[in-house]
Amino acid sequence: MVGDLIYVLRGHRPSLEEDSVFWKGGRNGQFKIKEAHSLLANPNDTAFPSRCIWVDRVPPKVTFFSWEATWGKGDVESIASKNPKELTGLLEQISGSEDLKKDYEDLEEQKARAEEKSALVYQKKRTIVMERKQKKEQKEEAEKHLRLQEQLKSLKKEHFLWKLLNIEKDIAKINEDLEAENKSREDVIQEQESCEREASKAKKEQAKYLKEITQFEKKISDKNNKLDKNQPELLKLKEEMSRINSKIKSSRKELDKKREERRKHAYDIEKLRNDLQDVAKSLDDVNEKVQDGGVKLQLADSQLKEYNRIKEDAGMKTAKLRDEKELLDRQQHADTEARKNLEENLQELTNRKEELDSQEEQMQTRLKNILDASVKHKKDLTQEKKDLREMQDKLGASRKKHQKYKLRISEIEDQLRELKADRHENERDARLSQAVETLKRLFPGVHGRMTELCRPTQKKYNLAVTVAMGKFMDAVVVEDEHTGKECIKYLKEQRLPPQTFIPLQSVRVKPIVEKLRTLGGTAKLVFDVIQYPFLIRPIFPTLTIPEGAPGGDLQLL
User: Fold this and answer.
1) Is 509 exposed, middle or buried (0-12, 13-18, 19+ CB in 10 A)?
2) Which residues pair with 28 in a beta bridge?
3) Is 522 exposed, middle or buried (0-12, 13-18, 19+ CB in 10 A)?
4) In tens digits, what is the pLDDT along the chain, a chain of 557 residues?
5) Short-list 457, 425, 433, 422, CA closest to 150
6) In which element (H, E) is residue 354 found?
7) H-helix or E-strand spanning residue 9
8) Residue 477 half-sphere exposure toward CB, CA atoms < 13 A
9) What letter does residue 513 receive in the DSSP assignment?
10) Rounded CA Rg of the chain
11) Cα–Cα nearest to 36, from 61, 56, 18, 50
12) How far apart are the first and last CA of the chain?
């Protein structure tokens, strides 16, 4: 205490009220200012066990009141030459605190123990305050989490309803489009069937025409072969016709000549006949005259000879002309017959030629018609094939569109199933959360679900931590088995969904192997990537989580 000396008052008193308490403690209770005045007036008074007093205005400073005394010069020098330790001993001896050293040490030890207990109590209090603060923060965070969960559920519900409405609208629209496409597809199929029937009919007609064309081509080929075979004969006939025509021309010329000669001969014969008739008439006239006259005409010998000669000459000329006439008549008849035969042959050949020309013209016309019809049918067939390809393309496009809509409907149905599953899962989570909240209200030992107690430090670990914990992610952490059994009993009574409970007092897990932290690479312990309350630390197994993409493969160590 002397070491804490601050002030040394010499020859004066503190300006305090006499009844003011300025020091407490010690064996004598409390001392007031008037007692301090007495101490200053009587320094040898031993009423005080200590000359050190605590001033409550300047704690824990010490003011040492020195009494008025007269010391010798040697005493002052002796005191001045002492070292601090000796001075301390002297002061303790003067103040009387040496007698209280043992008590002081005991009290110091008690003080140390009290300070230690106080520190422990303070530490405990601080821990309790921190835990209370943490619990309060956890409560606020849990309330905020529940509030945000409710908002999230509401937003998810609205979002899913909105998506469901859009999906239903999409389904209705797709169904309408699908019905329109089916109707269009049916029309296209009917049109395709009609085109196929027409194409089949056109193919049959084409086959028929091709068959006829083949037959006509065969006939034309046969005719051409026959014409080729008859070509020499035709040439012969043409030559014969040319020869006959030449002969006919010469015969006609000869005939004309003979006719002219015949005409001349006929003229001569007619003239001779006329002369003969004139002579005969003259003779008859003469004979009549003779007979009428009754006088027989007597000719002289010379006249009779002349008469006979003339008669003989006339008979000879007449016989010669008659023979020539008969010969010319026979020759004319032969030439006429030959001419008739030649004309008949010529007419027959001409008719045959005209017939062949007509047949050839007919065959050429028919061939042309057949070729024109074939070209037309080929064009029609090409057009029908083009129409058929267009119909097939339309049908293929319709099928593709139908398949596309079918896939779209399948995707929408999958999304709808996922939404229903998500809604069912959300409803299940809501029921589980509500059940857990009820259990927490009813049973003090219920701490909550693992999903509420454990939070990954980063979002990329969410899926990985969920996979690592597996079925225990939704497990409920309770204090002991009794609480878990009571919770199970309550769930059965209320017919709520079954849940998994983890009792903290009886759970046993393997200790963490610290060397696993040195594996390096992308693996980390689940213990190191989640935040959780200290009380549930014993329930975590030793798992590793690969870093990188969220939801990476988990390695159980």
Assistant:
1) exposed
2) none
3) middle
4) 333 333 333 333 444 443 434 443 443 444 444 444 444 444 444 444 444 443 333 333 333 444 334 445 566 677 778 888 888 877 877 777 777 778 888 888 898 889 888 888 887 887 888 878 877 887 887 788 788 878 887 887 887 788 778 878 877 887 787 787 777 777 777 777 777 777 777 777 777 767 777 777 777 777 677 767 766 766 776 676 677 667 667 766 776 776 777 677 667 767 766 766 776 676 677 667 656 654 455 556 776 777 677 777 766 766 776 777 778 778 777 777 877 777 777 777 777 777 777 777 887 787 787 778 777 777 877 887 787 788 778 777 877 877 887 787 888 878 778 877 777 777 877 888 888 888 888 888 888 888 888 888 888 888 888 888 888 888 888 888 898 898 999 888 888 888 888 888 887 777 777 777 777 777 777 777 888 776 676 666 543 333 433 333 333 22
5) 433
6) helix 301-442
7) strand 5-9
8) 21
9) -
10) 79
11) 18
12) 63
Whole-number Å distance between alpha carbons of 294 and 296: 6
Neighbouring-strand partners of residue 64: 8, 52
Q: Which residue has the tokens 């029908």?
A: 384
